[in-house]
Amino acid sequence: MEKCIICGQSEFKPIFSDTLKKCARCGFATANLEISRELLEKTYSLNYFMGEEYLDYLKDKEILQLNFEKRIQFIRKLIPDVLPIENCLEIGCAYGFFGEILTKHFDTDYKGIDVVPEAIKHGREVLGLDLVQGDYLQMPAPVHPYTDVFMWDVV
Questions:
Q1: Does the pTM of the predicted model rise above 0.85?
Q2: Which residue of 27, 32, 68, 120 has the lowest C-beta tally within 10 Å?
C-alpha cells in the first residue's frame, strides 16, 4: 500500500464509488490507481452523463461550452500567439465539447480519448472530431509528441 504524500500514513478509505481514496489521518484525497477496468467502465458509463453526475450532458452543451470558452480565454492570456497549440490531446474528452471549441480558436491537430463509447460516438459522428474510446494509460505513444495535453474535470 502506498503512503499519503501529505502525512505519510498508509491507511486510505475509498470514496466516490472507490474511484478516489481519502487518507484516514489527514483527509487528503487522491485517485485510486488500483481501480479495476470493470469499475472504471461501470462508473463512467452513459449513466454518468445522463443522471448520475450530470442531469443531461448533451442538453447542457451550451453552458459547458461557455465554461470551455472561459478556459480558452485564460489559455490565450498564458500563451502568446507565437506559441500555438499545434498537436493536442484531451484526456477525458467526453462528447468532445472542449475539442469543438478549441479547434475553432486554434489551428491544431486535436485528439480526444474517453472511456464512454456513446460519448466518443457522438463526438465523432456529430462533431467530426478525432476521438478514441479507451483508457489513456493503455493508449499507444503518438508518432509526434503532443505539444499540449488537456484534462478538464478528470481525476
A1: no
A2: 27
